[in-house]
Every structure is written in C-alpha cells, then in structure tokens.
Automatic annotation (TrEMBL):
Domain of life where this protein originates: Archaea
Pathway: Carbohydrate biosynthesis; gluconeogenesis
GO biological process, alphabetically ordered: gluconeogenesis
Gene: fbp
UniProt-annotated binding residues for Mg(2+) 3: 231-233
Binding residue positions for Mg(2+) 2: 52-53, 131, 233
Pfam assignment, any one: FBPase_3
GO molecular function: fructose 1,6-bisphosphate 1-phosphatase activity; fructose-bisphosphate aldolase activity; magnesium ion binding
UniProt protein name: Fructose-1,6-bisphosphate aldolase/phosphatase
Family, as annotated: Belongs to the FBP aldolase/phosphatase family.
Source organism of the structure: Methanothermus fervidus (strain ATCC 43054 / DSM 2088 / JCM 10308 / V24 S)
Length: 366
C-alpha cells in the first residue's frame, strides 16, 4: 500500500498587515482536518504557518490530485477565511480566487506539492515552507542537493546516489514541461533553472529506479489571477537518507541565503533566510523572504515529528549573513537589481508614468 503526502497552502489573512497568520486560522484548519481524519479521508496532518501563509501537511492513501483530499484543504481554507473575515484580518481569503471548488485546488489559488511512494523500512522527509517569495526560489537549493557534489557528498561517495537524478522542469509561462537528467545534462539544465521566474523544478526522481525524491508547488498566483494578488510563497517535499541525500545534505543547500524574487510588494530581490517556525515573522521591509524546514518520519501513513530543522545555532551564521545582505540590498532603494526588472514586478506605476511623459519624450538626433 502506498502513502501520499500532500502539502497545500494559502494566505487567507494575517495580523498587522501581511506578517503572520493568526492562530485562530490554524485552529479552524485543524478542526476541519480532524473531521477529515475521523471520516477516513486523511490519515494524519500537521498545520503550521510560514509568515502569512497557512500550510496543511497531510498524509493519506488516496494518491496525488485526489478530489476528497483537495476538497478537505479547500474547505479548511474556506472555513478559516470566515474566521479571518470576522476578525477583519488583513487580506482575509486573499488566495482563494474562486467561490466554488471544482475537483482540485490547482488553479483556484492555493499552492500544492504532493508525492506518492511505497514506504521504506524507515522514511525521513523534509517539508519546506516559504514566505515572501516564488516557486523558483527552490531551483538553486534543489539543484545543489540533487546535482552538486560540492553540496551533496553522497553523489560522489555513495553508490546508491551515484547515478544521479532526473529533474522535471516546468515552463510556467508557456505551460510546458521537460525531463532532464543529471549529471549528463547539467549545463543545459542550469541554462533553464537560472531563469527562476519562468523555469521551475516540479519534481525530482532517482535515476536508478525512478523513485520520487522531491516535489515543489509551482503555482504562480499572478499568472492564475491575471493580476497581482500576492506572492506564491511555495512549499516543497524532499525525501532523505538511504539512497536519497542525507537530511544534513538537504539542509546544507540553504546555509548560504541565495537571492530570490519576492520581499516587499513581491517586487524585490532579497536573501532567502532559513528560520525556525517561531522566527517565520517577516518584518523588515516585509521580509526578507523566509524558509522553514520541518523534518518528519513517515510511519504507516502517520507523521512522526516535526523537528524544526533550522532551529539550530549553526544556522545563526546564515541568518546573520541574510541580515547583512538585506542591509546591502536595501541601500539600493528603488534601483535594480534590488527592485525586480519591470516585467517581473507584481505591480508598477511605470505605464502611467510613461503615459504622463508621452508628449515630453523627444527623438534623440545623433
Ligand atoms: C509581498 C506582500 C507584501 C505586500 C505589501 C503591500 O508578497 O505580501 O509585501 O505586497 O505589504 O500590501 P498591500 O498592497 O496589501 O498594502
Ligand atoms: Mg498576505
Ligand atoms: Mg505570504
């Protein structure tokens, strides 16, 4: 019998602006998920938040894209939105783009990462949750975890990893996907993955037996809604140990806070800061972007854990570095590359400014 992990998230309102989801929203989601557990739809769950996003981590026997599991998550968010609206929380229900559920949360606003597998004798998993950034934020660390021997020693010295991994990459603009194999196609893969707002890793498979290794939420809210309604704030699931990278190799890729798009008004580059659950409170300039890592053992479809994996003093250096990078980036104010290029900004006054100046622009005679 196979086990499925579904991580479904949404921003349904927060306190003091876009900072932190209120506890009452998580409690309401827990209530809905407890009922779904009693009804046998899901086997287990853990509810958390990363900044203003509520994350539902669920295990079940129903496979990916299951209508009942997705309906459960949708209902949890809908019920919690009622609480959010009553409390007049900020952005209440902002990621729920539809009034009606149509079989799957994809395209309705929430982000979703899922994977199904046959449990090994022991199955450690890391769930990552982000705030104030976009799905491409995982490109660099996932590449390093599954393809960079300077990050993952096992790629070189462990025979069970040595063959490498396959990357399923989505073009989120043209809605196409391609499967690429590492190490052979590493340079071609990097040519795509460097464009983090367009090409994003969806899934990663172990090459020797096609076993699922990682899964990422790739929904881009502004592409779904056609306008800015918040950043996508992605989640990812990564399997660890015994033929997969070790937990420490997985976390290692986040030790250097790389620059990602998001931060203030979804329109700035900033460092992805690895934080504990309690420190997922993005306040400086609405950030900088955050990532949390929760470690579980999956046992007979139950979640053992979590361990708050970035709650380790060794990551204090990374956080300090992220704070220093934030200071440096902030000094650029409205200039690129702190501010995103105009086509990647979530909202902009540029068209209006250009319209206003239309008659004042003159040809340059050279
Ligand atoms: C970024 C984000 C925030 C808001 C900013 C302005 O993803 O959620 O940085 O963009 O606080 O929010 P509004 O326009 O709601 O005042
Ligand atoms: Mg928000
Ligand atoms: Mg958010």
């Amino acid at each position: 019998m196979k086990t499925t992990i579904s991580v479904i998230k949404a921003d349904i309102g927060s306190v003091a602006g876009h900072v932190v989801a209120h506890k009452a929203l998580k409690d309401k989601c827990r209530e809905v998920l407890s009922k779904a557990k009693e009804d046998g739809i899901i086997e287990d769950f853990y509810v958390t938040n990363c900044g203003d996003d509520v994350n539902l981590i669920m295990t079940h026997r129903r496979g990916e894209d299951d209508e009942e599991v997705h309906r459960t998550a949708w209902e949890a968010f809908k019920e919690a939105t009622k609480v959010s609206k009553k409390m007049k929380l900020y952005g209440a229900g902002q990621d729920l783009l539809s009034d009606t559920f149509s079989g799957n949360v994809k395209g309705l606003g929430p982000g979703c990462a899922e994977m199904e597998f046959k449990e090994r004798p022991s199955d450690p998993v890391v769930v990552f949750c982000c705030d104030k950034t976009e799905p491409g934020a995982f490109n660099l660390p996932l590449f390093r975890i599954f393809a960079d021997p300077f990050n993952t020693a096992g790629l070189v010295i462990d025979p069970s990893l040595h063959k490498g991994y396959k990357f399923e990459v989505y073009d989120v603009i043209d809605h196409k996907r391609v499967m690429m194999s590492c190490p052979e196609e590493m340079y071609d893969l990097l040519a795509l993955l460097g464009s983090i707002s367009r090409y994003v890793i969806k899934k990663i498979y172990r090459k020797k037996d096609d076993e699922i290794a990682a899964s990422v939420s790739t929904e881009r809210l502004n592409l779904i809604a056609g306008k800015y309604i918040g950043k996508d704030d992605p989640v990812a699931i990564v399997r660890a140990q015994s033929g997969f990278p070790a937990t420490g190799e997985i976390l290692e890729a986040f030790a250097q806070p790389h620059l990602v798009g998001g931060w203030m008004r979804g329109s700035h580059n900033g460092p992805l800061m690895p934080v504990s659950e309690k420190d997922a409170v993005p306040t400086r300039f609405d950030g900088p972007p955050r990532v949390m890592a929760l470690g579980f053992q999956i046992s007979e479809c139950k979640l053992i854990g979590p361990i708050d994996l970035f709650d380790d003093p060794i990551f204090e250096r990374s956080r300090r570095l992220a704070a220093n990078i934030s200071e440096y980036m902030r000094r650029h104010g409205p200039f690129e590359p702190h501010r995103l290029p105009s086509d990647e900004m979530e909202y902009t006054t540029l068209p209006d400014v250009l319209k206003k100046l239309k008659d004042r622009f003159e040809d340059i005679e050279d």
